[in-house]
Amino acid sequence: MNEETIRRAKTFFEQGYRERGKIKWNGFFLSDHTQKINQTKKKQAQAIKWLEETAICDMQVACREGFANYRPILFQLDSTTTDQQAPAVITATVSAFDESGFWIDKSYYPFETIHHLEVKHEH
Hints:
Number of strands: 6
Distance between the termini: 81 Å
Shape: rod-shaped
Largest sheet: 3 strands, antiparallel
Number of helices: 3
Strand content: 15-25%
Strand order of the largest sheet: 2-1-6
Oligomer: single chain
């Protein structure tokens, strides 16, 4: 190495070089944090189980009861998530219903797409 190269390197490390300390640490923290979030999502997905299947006639009765008494219903769709897990249980208030399904706000749910439906009872 010649003296010019050594002088440039020395000047760079004395004046221009900045340790990435915090930035580097944040990168490690971010990867650890992401890993923890993924583990939490996986645990939550495992915690969701399929509820007992409800007959359509029982779903109609439950919708009628929930609507008439202003009580929320619990329902689980009859489909799996992208992870092949049971879908989350949804709690909502029935806006309207008919013999083939019900509305939650502006969303319509046909009874054929529902796996489980019941009126939520307060404890």
